[in-house]
Amino acid sequence: MTAHMPLQARRRFATAEIIAVGSELLTPFRSDTNSLFLTARLNELGIRVRHKTIVGDDGPDLAAAVQAALGRVDLVVTSGGLGPTEDDLTRETVAELLGLKLVEQSFIVESLEARFAATGRTMPCNNRRQALVPSGAVLLDNPRGTAPGLWLDIGDQVLVLLPGPPRELEPMFEGLSRDRLAERVSQERLYRRVLRVAGLGESHVEEKVAPIYSRWFDQDPAVDTTVLASPGLVELHLSTRATPSAATEALDGLTQELADLLGDKLVSTDGRSLSEVVGELLRQNDLRVAVGESCTGGLVTAGLVDVPGSSLYVEAGVVAYSNEQKQSLLGVVPEILQTYGAVSEEVALAMAEGVRCLTGAELGVGVTGVAGPSGGGEAKPVGTVCLGVVGPGAAEVAKTVCLPGDRGMVRQQSTQTALNLLRLALLGRVD
Predict the structure, then answer these.
(1) I need a surface site. Which of 23, 158, 242, 330 has the fewest CB within 10 A?
(2) Closest by alpha carbon to 108, among 144, 136, 147, 69?
(3) Residues 351, 352, 355, CA angle at the centre, nearest 5°?
(4) Backbone φ and ψ of 209, nearest 5°
(5) Structural domains in the chain?
(6) 368-400: per-residue pLDDT in tens?
(7) Cα 315 to chain centroid, rounded
(8) DSSP code for 307
(9) For 244-299, what is each residue's pLDDT tens digit?
(10) 3-state helix vs strand vs coil in the chain, percent to 5
């Protein structure tokens, strides 16, 4: 372990690894939320998290994880394993790995005893373990708990040991972000942009956009692109590490190229959801919408009203599941149902027109389909969904899709497809 180096001689932090410690995190009963918090805060400082690891309460496994992390990143942050019990091994394991002596700090013992005395209790002997400090470590105050954090300089790298409870870890790390970590980062920061795409599957989006985004890997600054799929939508996550002006220029450049390529398939370039984009279009055009739903069971309406302020443009939602309710609630005439079947574009349009007339909204949306797992046939297999949008001046558009997945996935994808059809209708870009 080296002596404290002057600021100008120390490595600027660009990369980090997070190691969450605790056997409970390897069970279904406890989630590692600390890593999400730490990643967000490190990214804000311009530090890219390269790895995340969960290790049980096992000394050799933890030592191997820390040693591997120190071999590939500038900053290693652990969470957990600093408590008073026998399975809290982080402090001892790190000291042994680095060849550091553990020294009991009397003032920590006194502080712990005073904390227990203030609540009328006597401190258990095992709490003295929390007063053991590796030689050369900097103590990080923990006003919300009994386990102090530790900062260890290892050459020009740093290892930070934080307590596991989020209410203790979070304020401790916030303090580090303002002082010790702030001194070790450059003016560059991590910047991200999220683009949302509808109407194309993940592989189709990748095939289209890969030739464009791959050219930006070697630019200065480089821009990384990740393609993520969710039911009915695909997200493009763009990220770069640069100064604010350089990052904006790079992200704007790649975004524009992708927008030119994707055209109407591109829902947003600023992370807005499909529901938010549709809501903004309805507000801009001073239009109200009502939804008649069958297989989606209210999910389309729920998607619209998830957006704050949606009362300005959402008039009503009607779930008409049976044919009888399609007729009685939405006025779908029996002949249409008999001729085309409940799952048809004709019925979807009739539902849209019916809910529009029922509520007085300018726009109506209708959705009907076979969500499964049963009910499908050769002509209309499970996953077949018909959608319709009816607008002012008797303008109407209908679409039939066949969606993959189980019942839940079909319903979720149907919802996004309906919202996207409404978006395209509002833009006047439906064939």
Answers:
(1) 23
(2) 147
(3) 80
(4) -90, -20
(5) 7-184 (3.40.980.10), 189-268 (3.30.70.2860), 274-427 (3.90.950.20)
(6) 999 999 998 899 999 999 999 999 876 899 999
(7) 30
(8) S
(9) 999 999 999 999 999 999 999 999 999 999 999 999 999 999 999 999 999 999 99
(10) 45, 25, 35
